[in-house]
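REQUEST FORM: STRUCTURE PREDICTION
Request ID: SP-0412
Submitted by: Lab K.M.
Chain count: 1
Length (residues): 616
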Amino acid sequence: MALLLYGNTLTHKYTQDDAIVIYQNSFVKKGLSGIPDILKTDTFHGFFNEAKDGLVTGGRYRPLSLIMFATGWQLFGENPMIGHLINILCYALLAICIFLLIELLFKYRFTNKERLFFATLTTALFIAHPLHTEVVANIKGRDEILSMLGSVTGLYFLVKAVDHKKIQFAILSSLCFFLGLMSKENAITFLAIAPLTMYFFRKMGVVASIKYSVPLFASGILFLIIRTSILGFDMGSVSGELMNNPFLKIENGIYAPFSASEKTASIVFVLGKYLQLLVAPISLTHDYYPRSIGILSLSNWKVILSLLLHIGLLIFAILGLRKRNIISYGILFYILTISIASNIVFPIGTNMSERFMFMPSLGFVLILAFGFYKILQRCNTNLYYVLPGILLLLYSAKTITRNQVWKDDYTLFTTDVKTSPNSAKILNAAGGAIQTKYANTEKSPERTAKLNEAIGYLNRATTIHPNYKNAYLLKGNCQFYLGKFEESIHSYNLALQLDPNYAEAKMNQAVAYRDAGKYQGQQRNDINKAKEYLYKSYRMNAQDQETVRLLGVVHGVAGEHLKAVEYFTKLTQLMPDNATSYLALSTAYRNAGNSEQANLATQKALELDPNALLKK
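STATUS: Completed
RESULT:
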């Protein structure tokens, strides 16, 4: 089933955060020799390096997926097909383990036939749920799959250890859970799930449930010791950058933190949004960055509804504790596993993400499958088997179609920007993707329209996030490719006002000044304006060969032949093996009345290329 639903991703490229953990990660690209560095540094260190480690909130220690990526790079090189195939196989393995766990948990509650049906339906609903596309279709999502795989298998062997009283199962439980923790930190929530599971399904008291969960606690302690020794005690700090802190707003032209009520309202709203996506995963997007979720108040009806729903769920779960109600278990499983990504425990750097629902969704599908089981139990007809069948078909169809969006960055960004039109990050990403695709294509009405569309996205991004320097850079690039040089220079200036050391903006602005000078000279015949722009470009990058050449040309056209000689001389220094530069110097000398130097320059050009004069 996993292969059927996700087989269409095998031809997809790398997308989204794959750059951070795979093809632009220096440690991963070392292959097996990069594994020691992976084990002793932050997960993103190989991408950001020391100077930029603080760009994302909180430390991340998830070496297992990176080790797999490094091994894959060693064996297959830059091959996204292999990455997608391994993701599908890991997802399929996770499904098998979920099936085995559910069947084991209900060993003393259902008959063999009922257990088989319930485990199959729960697993099928999990595999098909469209919210999982971000995790499975994006190779980087393997950390989520491995984390849950280690957690589920750890819990499975823990229950086996209790049932059979065998130490080998306890050891396997501890080992599997440790691997889950080494994949992603959210596995830590299973330290609460394990005793909860013992209480519900093996009818133990609280103390006994905790006692039998010791193998997992041992792994948890070992992981925290390793993580702390490498990263320190970094569980996420509050960032002052909007793209890493959704709880900021603009007041008097500067960013200020949300009030306590605004932050609470946003968190409560997001929890309600998660429930809505679990029930009706219709409009999906990979991006929920500011301001996909607006600034809300506690009086907002959606916030109130979400709060009432969660209060109701908690009350139901607590009331069902004594009776060990299965729905209560599903609710508590969901709440405990979502807690770590809720912004309640510590800041996660964004409002929400569909991948954060990967582990909690098991609690939801467990409740859903149990609901179908109850309906079928009470209605003595096979007709009701159609109900879960229809839902599985709907889920599967949505998953397959959603997969197509993940085929490359351009498709992903330009599709999801329609779903998340108020996210500065996706607006910036869509603008950048369009610019990359159309920048070097031939001039056409489509190219012009697309680059203007990109500028529209980038304008909206800077309206939402006025300090978004990369959006100004990309906007300047689009304007440059449209030949709007003065507008592009202005956009680069805005980026440089935010970061005077922004190397890419400096470099691009120098090119924009250069081409603006060329345009003013060739198209507008405005020599003074051409010199003004070219000198600005030269001051920013005196080593640019084309700028130096154009300065020689413009001074020659202006009759300033000695200045032309000066710049063409520098051009020959920058391009000592280029015959054309010596011919240009020869012309400048001749126009300046120095025939002797002109002949020497011509002779040098012919030495480099005997056919130079024919090509002139």
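NOTES: The chain has a mean pLDDT of 94.
Reviewed by: T.R.
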